[in-house]
Amino acid sequence: MRIMLLAFLLVFSSVSRAQPYDFTTFGPRLSGDYQLSMSAFLPPDRLRLQEIRAQIPHLQSYEDFLDYIAERRPVLFENPVLIHDSGSLQYSDRERPRVILFGDGLMLAFAEDPRREERTVEVIAFDELSQGFQFAELQFGADGARFQDQPRNCQSCHGTTPKPLWDPYDFWPNAYGSAIARFGTVAEKNAYEKIRQQTPKQGIYQRLKWPVPTGNNNRGLDGIETFTQYVNQLQIFAALPRLQQQPGAFDQVVPALLGVLNHCAVDANDANAARKLAAFFPGVWQSRIQTEFAGWHQRVKEARRRLKSYQSNRYQKLFPNSPTLFAIDLERLAAETQTVAQFYFILDLAGVDARDFTLSQGPNPYFMSVPSNLDADLASNMALVAPDIFQRLSPKLVNANGGGYDFTWARFNCASLQTESLQQLQGMNPTAPANTGFRNAPTVFGECMSCHTINPAAQGAPPIPFDSSGQLRVWLQGSDGAGMKKILERIQKTGPGQMPPYRKLSREEQEQLRLNLEHIGS
Q1: DSSP run (H or E) holding 83
Q2: Cβ neighbours, 10 Å, residue 150
Q3: Considering only 28-42, 46-60, 279-293, which range has the smallest mean pLDDT?
Q4: What is the predicted pLDDT for the residue at 434?
Q5: For residue 70, what pLDDT is reported?
Q6: Cα–Cα distance between 497 and 507 in angstroms, integer?
Q7: Tell me, what's the pLDDT at 440?
Q8: What is the largest CA-CA distance in the chain?
Q9: Which of 17, 41, 111, 250 is the most exposed place for a label (fewest CB within 10 A)?
Q10: DSSP string of 12-59, one letter each residue
Q11: Which of the 8 DSSP states describes residue 324?
Q12: pLDDT tens for each residue of 185-244
């Protein structure tokens, strides 16, 4: 299986992309024989993590590293993502935002803490051989440069199977260009323009290509949309094979999943949608679907409502009482919930744990990618894990969004998928008892956020700003470090008063969380 997957992964173009990335760069593209190309993500002349590691002994300073990247892959500086309020271990504020550069299967995060002379660069690299993400940290100090592979303090935030963390389209309250690459308020725009126009600039800010917003909507920070497509597509590359390797019946439900992604079971009425979905399944599966799907869909809709409410509240706290420049209708993409609910519901019935599928740390258990092309993304990527179905059923390859974007959408015949699904599931039963949706977040920090940050009043939990390192630092240090002492005490307890209340953290999880909190608190 691994060799077959690699054959699909390693279809490269002969010419590397020279122009800046845009949103269309990172959509899935299938060839006529259904091989998925990764040439946009892993071009032949790309900068690799191994190359960065080898370069470290030759660098004397952080500035040397910036110069090296600017000369080696200048395209990486074309589409920066600027995080002004970060939950990471790196420093950020409005005047010194955390900078994410991306491309070549890499994500490089830069932060320039004004209180320190030392600099660190966090690196996440997609590895096509392991079909997962590698984490590293570059450290620059008075004694030169150091390379740290797989830092221990990553796991409590990024999970035991590490992955990038990023909110789904279409709102990112803690980043410049928060509202679909536009400024949401005058205060956000003014804060961005202050650093864009500042002279002279130093460090990473000196080398960036600063987007100039244009038009009535002040659009221009397109890197944030491009990065969303980029990082979610990489996660699909990594996550689908992991789902397939689980003990459940993933392979058997692929035809039904493709049916969902081809809109074979869409209906404005949940009962009708459940009936259409049930037609892909035999016997006892049908009763489970018709009985339980409406409840699953309701949970997904509620999760979306909580996510949007949390994002809106966070933005209002960051930029209070500022005139609006561009307001997003939070319900404009609400129709995505039915397809998303069907996708996860099928995996749940098949006994496949998809809790780690999204790039969530806590507030978002279900949604990923960009809703307007999510179905195309997932349908085309199924060629990675089910090439035989593509060869047998010969789907048509069309452009996603009616040709608006150069993405491939593998469009199957619904009746053929239904026949295939019934054959695959013959004699099988769904898992029992029924799960009720995802309760726990996939990371320890995410579990903390779910109760103490997203909606603490509803949880009966004291509010703690786990989503903002700057605010969390103040909270931890307050009253002679009372916050830090309280958290460490509660995670070490067993029984009443332990945190989280529904499970005991392992010693390794406790240690990772302690290290992260101490780093933030210092």
Answers
A1: strand 81-83
A2: 11
A3: 28-42
A4: 54
A5: 95
A6: 17
A7: 59
A8: 70
A9: 17
A10: --SS---SPP-GGGGS--B-TT-PBP-TTTS-TT---HHHHHHHGGG-
A11: B
A12: 999 999 999 999 999 999 999 999 999 998 877 888 999 999 999 999 999 999 999 999
Q: Match 């993400």 to its residue by tokens.
A: 133
Question: Two tokens at 278?
Answer: 């049930």
Most confident of 12-16, 30-34, 72-76, 139-143: 72-76
Give me 64's structure tokens: 């040397």
Compute the distance between CA of residue 462 and CA of residue 458 in angstroms, rounded to an integer: 10
H helices of 360-455, in order, are 371-381, 387-393, 414-424, 444-449
Distance CA 223, CA 81 (A): 6
Q: Which residues make beta-bridge pairs with 106?
A: 103, 125
Residue with tokens 């013959």: 426
First to last CA, the chain: 47
Q: What residues have CB less than 8 Å from 116, skipping those under 6 apart?
A: 91
Supply 484's token pair: 């830090």
Tell me the three state secondary structure of residue 485. helix
283: alpha, beta or left, given left = phi > 0 and alpha = psi -120 to 50?
left
* Pairing mode, strands 396-399 and 144-149: unpaired
Give the tokens for residue 173: 């309250």
In which residue are the tokens 């749940």 written? Answer: 348
Q: With contact defined as beta carbons under 8 Å apart, do 170 and 180 qualify?
A: yes
Q: At what angle do helices 270-278 and 250-261 cross, to 10 degrees?
A: 130
pLDDT at 6: 43
Most confident of the ranges 1-15, 58-72, 137-151, 452-466: 58-72
* 3: pLDDT strictly greater than 70: no
Alpha helices by DSSP H, listed for 262-335, are: 270-278, 283-318
Contact present, 80 and 223 (Cβ < 8 Å):
yes
Q: Supply the pTM of this predicted model.
A: 0.91
Query: What tens digit of pLDDT does each residue of 408-420 get?
Result: 888 999 999 999 9
Coil, strand or helix at 124: strand
Q: What is the mean pLDDT of residues 333-353?
A: 93
The amino acid at residue 468 is S
Q: Which of 135-149, 317-331, 442-456 has the lowest mean pLDDT?
A: 442-456
Question: Are the CB atoms for 503 and 510 separated by under 8 Å?
Answer: no
| Rounded-to-integer distance, Cα 175 and Cα 209, Å | 17
Only one residue has tokens 């529904």, namely 502
Report whether 346 contacts 256 (CB < 8 A). yes
> What is the rounded distance in angstroms from the CA atom of residue 326 to the CA atom of residue 217?
6
Q: Model confidence at 368, in pLDDT bands (50, 70, 90)?
A: confident
Q: How confident is the model at residue 106 (pLDDT cuts 50, 70, 90)?
A: very high
Contacts of 182 (CB under 8 A, 6+ apart): 213, 217, 218, 219, 221, 325, 326
Sign of CA dihedral 487, 174, 337, 260: negative
Two tokens at 365? 């258990």
